[in-house]
Amino acid sequence: MALVREARREGRAIEVVALDRDPVIAGLAVRACAAYPEIRVVEGDALDPPFADRSFDLVVANLFLHHFDLDAAVDVVSRLRRLATQAVLINDLRRHRLPHALFSAAGWILVRHPRAFDDGKLSVLRGFTPRSSTGSPSAPESAGPGRGPCSRSASCSRSGGMRTTTDLVVLGAGPAGSVLAWLAARAGLTVVVLERDRFPRDKVCGEFMSSEGAATLARVGALDPCSTRRRVDRSVPPERPTRTPA
Q1: Pairing state of beta strands 39-43 and 16-20?
Q2: How far apart are CA 101 and CA 232, in angstroms?
Q3: Secondary structure (3-state) at 232
Q4: 111: which of 2, 58, 70, 116 fits an S-S bond (Cβ 3.0–4.6 Å)?
Q5: Per residue in 228-246, is it b (16+ CB within 10 Å) or e — as a string?
Q6: pTM of the model
Q7: E runs forming strands in 70-177
Q8: Are 78 and 105 in contact (CB under 8 A)?
Q9: φ and ψ of 83, to 5 deg
Q10: With contact defined as beta carbons under 8 Å apart, do 1 and 24 qualify?
Q11: Minimum mean pLDDT range among 40-44, 191-195, 202-206
């Protein structure tokens, strides 16, 4: 919207396309941009953008890449470069001790919710440095203690050379994958869950779970145990936007 306002002040024609894969966020963006006909909101995935090559003059990735490890970020940028005729503008976090310390000390002034506060600190730690942004091994995905293909405390097996017959393979043992595996096993299916990380893990922007997700955790008996470890807001699901994205 700021780009559109600046273009209006300078008397320049501009067309902006905003992309988000979450239908709720895309719907909220449609409502927020209602006064800006120059902006079109599209529901889609940056990993598989629904646009032809060279569709835009400029592609902007704003506070987006720190959600990916270095290899994935390079892949995303290469996809974005194919969309732009002029340039890709990347605005993201720089990993440094000073901003992390400042946010840890004073972040409550800007962010009041504990999940958002924790996420802000974690996002700084998972940001980039000038060295990592040029492809150096010191990248934001560097694993800390407890990161790896399999948790020592979990009941799991490493997959090297494993051959088995199963009804269902679930990729990812996060909340959604774990619940799916649990429900499938309860239904009598044999299930294999594949996960590359160790748990618990730090997941950027992963501290929030919607009230719909809380209802699913309650269904499988996991909400109360989660509540004892982290704050859980038992709120009513928000109304979905009535206007669908373009």
Answers
A1: parallel
A2: 26
A3: coil
A4: 116
A5: eeeebeeeeeeeebeeebe
A6: 0.52
A7: 84-91, 168-171
A8: no
A9: -85, -20
A10: no
A11: 202-206
CA distances 224 to 12, 180, 217, 219, 227, Å, are 55, 19, 9, 11, 5
Q: Facing residues of 243 across strands?
A: none
| Residues pairing with 61 in the sheet | 90
Which residues of the chain form beta strands (DSSP E)? 16-20, 39-43, 56-62, 84-91, 168-171, 191-194
Contact 47, 74 (CB under 8 A): no
**pLDDT on residue 156:** 47
Angstrom distance (rounded) from CA 3 to CA 5: 5
Query: Residue 146's Cα: distance from chain center in Å?
Result: 21
Residues 101 and 125 sit within 8 Å (Cβ to Cβ)? no
Flag the least confident range among 94-103, 142-151, 227-236.
142-151
* Element housing 112 (H / E): none
Q: Which of 70-84, 137-151, 155-169, 225-239 shows the lowest mean pLDDT across its residues?
A: 137-151
pLDDT tier, 142 (very low <50, low <70, confident <90, very high otherwise): very low
> How far apart are alpha carbons 16 and 59 in whole angstroms?
10
CB 120 within 8 A of CB 106: no
Of 13-17, 19-23, 102-106, the range with the lowest mean pLDDT is: 102-106
Rounded Cα–Cα distance for residues 148 and 77 (Å): 26
**Cβ-contact 49, 79 below 8 angstroms:** yes
DSSP assignment string, 113-167? SHHHHHHHHHHHHTSB-HHHHTT-S--TT---TT-SSS-SSSS----TT-----S
Quick check: 209 and 175 in contact, CB under 8 A?
A: yes
Q: In one letter, which amino acid is 195?
A: E
